Amino acid sequence: MKKSLILTIISIIVLALIGGAFWYLNTQKQGVINNNETVVQDEGENKEVKEEAEEQVKGEDKIEEIDTSGWLNYKNEEYNYSLKYPKDYYAGSEGYGDMSSVIVVNEDTDDYPLYINVQDRNSYLDDSHKTDREIINKIWEANKEYKDQYTSDIEDIIFNNKEAYKFTAQGGFTYINGEYVMPNEHEFIFIFHKGSLIIISYLPDNKIAEKFLETFKLE
Predict the structure, then answer these.
(1) Fewer CB atoms near the end CB (10 Å): N or C, the chain?
(2) How far is CA 119 from CA 33, 96, 116, 144, in A?
């Protein structure tokens, strides 16, 4: 009787060990399958992300490789600057007193990635604003307070081998001759040249606008 009980207990223990071993091996196998599925899924997602990134780079390279040799020339002899623009764009000039405005616009879409204002530097002069930097500070302060819009800090840059100034604004732009509303963010470059203040506004991260800037020359 005692011997039979011992054998029964031993059998139960052995069966429990065998069952536990089978459970452990099955769990490990399932874990490997899940890990493999995760790896395959991650590889698929990474592949898609990589392909999208490559397509984006190809698109940017395509724009950057635009040949400007066939572009038309616009030259402003009054304010001594020039630029190039594609045949499907229009560069127009209108005079408003002491200011000249040139807009470069796509005739098919009406997009205008670049806009140029030229103003008389002397119109900004007063007892507190005499140097170029003081004049830029005056314009920046007016825009900083203009309708609580966003205006970045002034950045000193070199443009066309000349000292220039730059800041970003969104919501609108105000200057001595007036103001205009612009819902999109624009970047502004300010250059003093032969008694004039040239203000170039353009859309940031716009490759066509960047190409226009590359062709812009002070005469």
Answers:
(1) N
(2) 71, 10, 10, 20
Cβ–Cβ < 8 Å for 103, 132 = no
The 3-state secondary structure of the chain reads CHHHHHHHHHHHHHHHHHHHHHHHHHHHHHHHHHHHHHHHHHHHHHHHHHHHHHHHHHHHHHHHCCCCCCCEEEEECCCCEEEEECCCEEEEEEEECCEEEEEEEECCCCCCCEEEEEEEHHHHCECCECCHHHHHHHHHHHHHCHHHCEECCCEEEEECCEEEEEEEEEEEEEECCEEEEEEEEEEEEEEEECCEEEEEEECCCCHHHHHHHHHCEEC
Q: How far is CA 74 from the centre of its chain?
A: 26
Q: Is 70 exposed, middle or buried (0-12, 13-18, 19+ CB in 10 A)?
A: exposed
pLDDT tens sequence across 124-150: 888 888 899 999 999 999 888 877 678
- Using CA atoms, how far residue 97 sits from 94, 120, 147, 174, in Å, is 10, 10, 26, 17
User: Alpha-carbon distance 219 to 147, whole Å?
Assistant: 36
Residues in the chain: 219
Residue 35 pLDDT level (bands cut at 50, 70, 90): low
